[in-house]
Amino acid sequence: MSKIEHAEVFVASPGRTFVTLRITTTDGVTGLGDATLNGRELAVAAYLRDHVVPLLIGKDPARIEDVWQYLYKGAYWRRGPVTMTAVAAVDTALWDIKGKTAGLPVYQLLGGRSRDGVLVYSHASGADVPALLDDVERFLELGYKAVRAQAAVPDVGGTYGVRKGRLYEPAATALPDEQPWDTEAYLRFAPTYLEAVRERFGFGFHLLHDIHHRLTPMEAARFGKRVEDVGLLWMEDPTPAENQEAFRLIRQHTTTPVAVGEALTSVWDVQQLITEQLIDYVRTTVVHAGGITHLRRIFDLAALYQVRTGSHGATDLSPVSLSANVHLDLAIPNFGIQEYMGHPEEAADVFLGGATFSDGMLHPPEEPGLGVEYDERAAARFPYEPRYLPVARRLDGSVHDW
Ligand code: GCO
Ligand code: MG
């Protein structure tokens, strides 16, 4: 019987930081898992190196569910982003190994294709409305059938989602950048640019918008109602999700669809949102919600309540977890859409292979397993550089939700 022989944790910053777990079996098969938790990367690396890798040695790599239960229940301390990202990395690596051992791409192990490809959206943004419109046009010309739109709020320096370089990268400074936030200015401005996008380009593509946890439930209700005619595919994270009852109020006031979940890490954290049908799309991902095994459990619960999926796919989700998510997206019945931002160019030297984009969709690699390999020599050229997400402050100086 093949056993887990060793496992290594790599931390590298090819354009941004990624933490990667590689498990090797006694048969010489390797599997990869993404363990990146933006701005808290070293906590997951230590959790894996110090507390998980020693427990894996000698285990049967084929027993994916059993290893998941062992790590989750065996830790006693449950849930939370650090734990669930570490468990996810192991789970993803074991699915990669199972696919390679079977000679099948992972989506075949999950039941095979339910669709031709995985519909994706990307991020258009602008420092002002004309720049945003140019950017939307660029994505439509690239073949995207779904675009997220964000523009900088005039005279407020801290708008979420506005790109400076080739990619939108919020974790850009060695210490958190403190950025101002003005809710009223945002509420006045954001609907106008969403309308401008529809006026210029019509309704022949999906339009999305990310509020990034910044409104109160009543403000979110007001926003959703105001933009109903824009026909958003979703408004994302309209209010922080710690208090999930808050979403009832939003639902009572608007038919604008709601998406939540990129910062949530387990089925128990989305249970109320799903079973009370407080959301339309669940945005949990392979990397932060316990791997393919656990994400599939969340998506199955969602299917019972006609909630569709819309997994997080920002730059901080490595090509390994993006590929794993695309394999799962392809197979499940209640797939909605997948976020796809792309990665820094340097990342392509380190992560070889992965999902490919064409006709507005991502397609998984057809090689056995996840179809991504890690070049550790290339990774050594990109030593870890600390980077933090910004912190938002209201105009009176108090801390706001970023
Ligand atoms: C998104 C997200 C990201 C997150 C980032 C945090 O919808 O893509 O909100 O931009 O802020 O991934 O690490
Ligand atoms: Mg988001």
UniProtKB/TrEMBL annotation:
<dbReference type="InterPro" id="IPR036849">
    <property type="entry name" value="Enolase-like_C_sf"/>
</dbReference>
<dbReference type="InterPro" id="IPR029017">
    <property type="entry name" value="Enolase-like_N"/>
</dbReference>
<dbReference type="InterPro" id="IPR013342">
    <property type="entry name" value="Mandelate_racemase_C"/>
</dbReference>
<dbReference type="Pfam" id="PF02746">
    <property type="entry name" value="MR_MLE_N"/>
</dbReference>
<dbReference type="InterPro" id="IPR034593">
    <property type="entry name" value="DgoD-like"/>
</dbReference>
<dbReference type="InterPro" id="IPR018110">
    <property type="entry name" value="Mandel_Rmase/mucon_lact_enz_CS"/>
</dbReference>
<dbReference type="InterPro" id="IPR013341">
    <property type="entry name" value="Mandelate_racemase_N_dom"/>
</dbReference>
<dbReference type="InterPro" id="IPR029065">
    <property type="entry name" value="Enolase_C-like"/>
</dbReference>
<dbReference type="Pfam" id="PF13378">
    <property type="entry name" value="MR_MLE_C"/>
</dbReference>
<protein>
    <submittedName>
        <fullName>D-galactonate dehydratase family protein</fullName>
    </submittedName>
</protein>
<dbReference type="InterPro" id="IPR034589">
    <property type="entry name" value="D-mannonate_dehydratase-like"/>
</dbReference>
<feature type="domain" description="Mandelate racemase/muconate lactonizing enzyme C-terminal">
    <location>
        <begin position="129"/>
        <end position="257"/>
    </location>
</feature>
